[in-house]
Amino acid sequence: MKAALIREVESVKKIRIEEAQLPELSSEHHVMVNIGAVGICGSDLHGFYDPKSMARIPGLIMGHEAAGVVTEVGAAVTRVKVGDRVAVDPQVICGECAQCKKGYYSVCDNKKIIGSNLKGFMNGCMAEFAVVTEKQCFLLPESLSLEEGAMVEPVSNAIHVLNRVKVNMGDTIVVIGAGTLGLCIMQAAKLTGTGRVIVTDLSEKKLALAKALGADIVIKADEDPVARILSLTDGLGADIVIEAVGIGATYKQAIAMVRKRGSIMFFGATHKEVSLELIPILHKELHLIGCTGAETECPVAIDFIASGKINVKPLISHRFTLDDTQEAFETMANPENDAVKVMLIP
């Protein structure tokens, strides 16, 4: 099969299109999926371009936001059949640890992610075919395209963020960052009964998209968003701030713009470490809530996309064939392109 693999060329990671061995169904619960669409995540981008990162290493097939058509199933598979169109949940969980037994699948003690080496080497979906477990497959209605199916993963993550915090009717929610996840989170937040959702970003194009998708207020990130938020909330601050960028500066903004005893959702993770001032966290008695992956949100994500409650089509800003994966990464990495979701079509 054709696949996009990371190779090291003169000490620099590059993507090469190669003929790779077709993966095998090594378990009776495995499913072969002919990949129809796979998105490039920010974590792919950062892991690929960071020479020190061990999350995306040479020899790996990336890709964890995917959808396709089932072409083969193991003997014990009952959840899907050949010909089914499915979205793929990239999380491989054990189902046996203390966290899984509580239903906390996103923090499974033994979780691995396809297309990543972060928690153990597992090839992903930037290829013509991928093998996953049947539990990772979620049926798509005929009304959804495979591109929309590939957006189920980020939408399920966005819903999980909102499920992790108590939202009261009338709350002010700020989303820092208008990338794919920020725009999905913004739309999910609009479904919670919140009073208003405010989005901040440096890109005027992305802010215009946020506004078109339902954001109540958008703020340029270089126009003192902290002061704007405090002004809009009579000096109190936002009830909930969701950080979807992942750098120290925006986490500091989140602390400064949230109200006393407010909640900050820690979601963005561009950098492995950030430095934060401790005193305002203590003296404002803030709730800091970490977020990763999803638990049972995939079916909800599919329903929200299919019903139009969350619109993912405008988020797909660029499309490339699998042969042009290197160019796709370069396009997404160039800020002049204002890329939101770059989609590969194997």
From TrEMBL:
Going by the entry's taxonomy, the superkingdom of the source organism is recorded as: Bacteria
Q: Which residues form a coiled coil?
A: none
One GO MF term attached to the UniProt entry: oxidoreductase activity
Keywords, in A-Z order: Metal-binding, Oxidoreductase, Zinc
Q: Which residues form the Enoyl reductase (ER) domain?
A: 10-344
One Pfam family this sequence matches = ADH_zinc_N
PROSITE patterns noted in UniProt? ADH_ZINC (PS00059)
What PANTHER family does this protein map onto?
L-THREONINE 3-DEHYDROGENASE
Family under the similarity heading: Belongs to the zinc-containing alcohol dehydrogenase family.
User: What's the protein name?
Assistant: Galactitol-1-phosphate 5-dehydrogenase
